[in-house]
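User: Can you predict the 3D structure for this chain?
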Amino acid sequence: MADSVKTIAITLGDLNGISPEVVLKALGTWQPPSNIRVVVIAPESAWQFWQKHLALEYPFHRIASVSEWPRSQKFVLFDAWQKHIPVEMGNWSVQSGKIAGEALLCATRWASEGLIHAIVTAPVSKAALNSAGFHYPGQTEFIAEQLGVKSFAMMMISGKFRVALATTHLPLRKVAEALQTDKLVEALRVVQRELQTRFRIARPRIVVTGLNPHAGEGGLLGEEESVIITPAIQRAQAEGIEAIGPFSADALFGKFAQRQRAPSSGADDFDAYFAMYHDQGLIPLKMTGFGRAVNYTAGLPLVRTSPDHGTAYDIAGKNLAQPTSMIEALELASSIIADNG
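Assistant: Here is the predicted structure, written as C-alpha cells:
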C-alpha cells in the first residue's frame, strides 16, 4: 500500500469475554476511510471459534507479518501464537490474561518499530493480566511503560465532552497521597499538547476539579486544593496553559449536564475537564455517553483508544454485546491519524 495509508492494530482483549464479539461486530459494520487499514492481533483458532459461535463468519485474510500485507486487504488477522487456543466463555483465566498481555506486547513492539499508527485495545481483565504476570493497573499503564512514556494521561471522550484524569486505577484511600503539584502540572501539559496537536484546538481551555467536597471549602474540608491543586494551576497558567479552577466537581459537572439540556452561549464551555480521580470524572461522562464513550491515552507517540466498557463475562457468548463503543474507538483513532499526516 502507499505510504499515505495508516495502520490500526486491534488487540483482541480477553478471549473469554465480550471483546471478540464487539470487535467482530464492529468490523462487520464500520467503514474505515480509504487510507486506513486494520490488523487484528489474535489467535486464529479463537477468532474462528467466535466467528462460528456468533454466526459472523465473513472472510478474513491472515498475514504472517505486517510487511506481507496484500494491497487488496483492508482488514487482516495476525496470529502471534500459531497454535490452538481454547476459549472458556464467561470466565477469566491465566491463559486469557497471557494471550491479552502478549497481544499488547506485539502491538507496542510494532509501534516502537513505526509499523502502526494507532492501537485500539479491546477490553481485558485486570485480574487475568496480573495472574499471567503482567502487573499493571490497566492497559493504559501497560502500553505507556512498554513505549517508554512517563508522562501520559487517561482521557475519556464522548463527542466534545473530554475528561482527563490526574490519577487512574488507584484505591480511593491512596488518591490524596498520589496528588503532587509537579505531576499535575505535567499532566496539564500533556492534555494541552494533545488537544493542540491531535484534536487541532489552538487554545484549549481546561477546567480543573477539586479533590474534596466543595473544593475543600477554604480548607475546612481538606487542604489539597490550596496546597497542591491551586499551585499546579497557577504554574500551568504561567506557562500559557488556559487552566482554571479548582471547582467543586458536583457543581461543575452539574452545570455541564444543564448546558446539555439548554445550550448556553458557549462562554463557559471547556475543551477538557481535569478530574482528580477515576470515578469523579468517569461517572458524569458515562452518564452522558455510556456505550458511546472512548478511552483515549494522551501523551503517547501514537494514538491509542479503547471502548468504555469491560469484559462483561456475564453476557459473553450470548450475542448481546453492542459494538457501538468499539466503533467509536475505531472512528476516533482513524479520524486522528487520517488527519495528522
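The chain has two domains: 1-149+308-341, 152-299. The two ends are 16 Å apart (CA to CA).
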